[in-house]
Structure formats: C-alpha cells, structure tokens
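Quick bug: Copine-3-like output formatted oddly.
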Amino acid sequence: MLDWPQIQCVTKVELTVSCQHLLDKDIGSKSDPLCVLLMSSANNQWYEVARTEQVQNCLNPNFAKKFVVDYYFEIVQKLKFGIYDIDNKTIDLSDDDFLGELECTLGQVVSSKKLTRPLVLKNKSPAGKGTITINAEEIKDNRVVNFEVEARKLDNKDFFGKSDPYLEFYKQTQTGWQLAHRTEVVKNNLNPTWKPFRIPLQSLCGGDLDKSIKVECYDYDNDGSHDLIGCFETTMKRLQDASRTSPVVKEYTFLDYIMGGCQINFTVAIDFTGSNGDPRSPQSLHYISPQGVNEYLSAIWSVGNVIQDYDSDKMFPAFGFGAQIPPSWQVSHEFPLNFNPASPFCAGVEGIVEAYRVCLPQVKLYGPTNFSPIINHVACFAKQALQQTTASQYFVLLIITDGVITDMDETRSAIVNASRLPMSIIIVGVGGADFSAMEFLDGDDGCLRSLTGEAAMRDIVQFVPFRQFQNAPSQALAQSVLAELPQQVASFFSLFKLKPPREPSPS
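Here's what came back:
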C-alpha cells in the first residue's frame, strides 16, 4: 500500500461561473448550457470534480451552483472548465454538443479574483465569440442565512394561466451584481410560497450585514425569455430587523463534526452476479491479475483508504450480493464476505481485500442484481444512530457493481427512506455496461421519488463509472466519489439540529 503525501490545504475557494455569447447549437431554441469542472491529476490526467446545473435556452448563463475547491499554494492546480449544450438525460457528456472550454490554473483565478477569457474548441480555435468569467472567493465564514419567502399579488405575465415565479438573490461586488441563489419555480401561482432554503452569508453579502442585496422575481418561460415581475434592494441587517427570529445562524462544518467525535461507519457491498464473468477467466471483472488487482479491488482501496481515517476502530462490515453461497447454494443478496453473519467485520481496508480474495473462489456467481437488501441492512443501523441526541455516527455504503439494477423500484424506495437517515451511498460502476440508469439514482436535481411518489429528503447517492478513472491516480476516484460527502454529513446533522458529541474548540 502506498502512503500518499499529506498536503495541507491552505483554504477553500468558491468559484462562480458565467458565460457570454455561447455558440447556439439548438434548432428552434437556444443552447441549454452546463459547465463541468475538471482538474489535472499528478500524472496529467483530467478527472471530473463537479458540474453546475443546466440553464435552459440561454447563451449568456449565470450558473447558480458554485464549485468549491481546495486551494494549495504550493501546487500548480490545473483546471478545465468545459461548456456543453445538454440535450439528453445521460451522464455521458460525449453525447452532448461541446460549446468550448478554458484551461487555466487556480493560481491564475485567485490572483485575478475575476478572470474572463475566450472559450476555445478542442482544436484550440475560438468558440465563436464565447467567453467565460470565473469569480473566486475564499470561504472563511461559516454563517448561513435561513430563508422562508412568500410573495403576494404578483403581476400576471402569462396570457394563459398565471405567472410561474422564481427568485434570484444577488450579491453586490466591485464589478456589479453576482448571482448568489436561485429558488425553484412555483407553477401557476400569483401568491407563491417557496420551499425554505439557505444561502451562505459569504455568498450573499460577503459576510457584511450592511452590504446591499438585490432580489429579482421572474416569471419562468420554457423558451428562456423569463419576464421580470419586480425587484428590490435591501441589506441583511434590514432583513434581520424585520424578522421575528434571527435568520443568520452559525453552521457547524464537516470538520466541526469530525473533530467533535463523529464517527463515519464504512460498509462495502460487492456484486457477485454472473454478468461479471467466470473469475478464473482474464476477461472477468473479478479476475485478479498477476499484479494482484482488478477494478473491484482498485475501488475498495481508493475509497477505503480515505474513509478509514474517520473510523476509530477501523472494523468495516463487508458483504456480497447476487451469488449462490455454501453450504446450501441459495442465492443471497446480503452475505458477509467472511461468511460470519454474527461478525461481518473486516480489519481495515486490508481486511476487506483479504476477505474478498478468500470469498471469491468459494461462491458461485449468479443473479439478479438487487441493491435494496444491502441498502436496507445499513439503514437499520443508521436508524438506530438517529436515536442518539448528538451527531455521533454517520454511515457510508460503497456498492461496487457491474450492471443494471434488477430491483429498481425497491431500490428507489430504500434510497428515499435512507435519505432521512445519517447515511450516504456511493456506487462505483465497473466494466463497460450502460450505466445511464444509475444517474437516475444520483438525484442531484432532487427528483428521486419512490414508486408511491414519496420524494427523497436529500441527495445521498453519488455514482461514478470506474472507466473514467482508469488512467488517473488512485486518489482521483476517491476525490470524485467523496466530494459531496462532507456537505451531506454536515447538512444532515444541521437539518436535524444535532450538534457534535463534543463542542469544537473556538478557532
């Protein structure tokens, strides 16, 4: 096992992206752009960090979703911002129209604070008149503002039906107004009440309660020609004075919880279905090469090496699913790799790897590919942890699979139920299968629902195909799949008003 050098992060930087004069690739409407951020690994391979939301029918998008990156002063951190016109629901961007990209370094962005550059195509020729602007801001204020907003007697901008209003909150900067938050659209309603939301104080007013904030209300139109209903300017201080309770609260960070004694419990589930191929064959995804590796092992090492630092006893439950197991040869979707139901724990990542190696020749690969039993198994323990009065435990389930889920309806219900628990699910897809169904579970747009229509409380699933990381260093996969985890942990405990077991020392 290699010990990667520990490089101390100087600070976190929030990047806000907007574009101007994008290429129009759509017929009958305008492009629907999305921005993807990639970073360069130590061996100069690009890997995806995050994506913004998609903006409909717009050639001059202001993306509301921010990129938060660790800033290392002593490293040249190469960034690539890619702009795509999204025309389908798949996670693979190769199916979408490419509108241009910018390569730069994080050092260039932070030293400029606001960087505007032309977009170029893959052959480095100009992408029309398209430009990209990146604003950088250091994150050093963990206060957030809780908003509950309603409006009354809005102007009706629609000929048929009523306006479909949404709000945009803008922060005042030296170079003009910068989008800080966009609410959801409330359909056909002149007296809307928006879902409660929160905006970091730094994003809203730079932490200055007397700095102007602008709020604009629009009537949403599918063609992108949103009508302005009205706007006003205010300050956070005025909003506080008008509120019965202070909307500005200190929010515990992920490190507040970890340093305060919260444990992250790591569970691994491995796919032993027949579609993986005979483990004795070099074509099988379970075939262990002479070098002692396969994609399953690589995923376990990559993710496990990061997470094991946050669990003090380093004893991890490890399970298999989709195999016939001895002695009865019944199919099981939730069997311990060590065949000991009373104690399915493995000592560290090395223990998981060893249990997998010993288990593999003893089972018969079978099927189908059912996720819900193992999700519900971990959810039982997460539910018990929720009875604690502090944020003492959080559960992370890593599922490594080669194929499409057979029990999709049951899995959707299991994830919706788990979204109310201190739990996150990471799915790594190995092999060359079509994983488009997995994106449905990775509900970044918040639309995952159970078969009965019950919505997930929050997004707890992160999916990546392993093939994207075959040429990247081992830490790249972990960085991608674990990128959302700190926010998922902190937001869950905040939602349930659970404090760390020990109050963090004041900084």
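Actually, after a second look the formatting is fine. The chain has three domains: 11-139, 143-250, 264-495. Closing.
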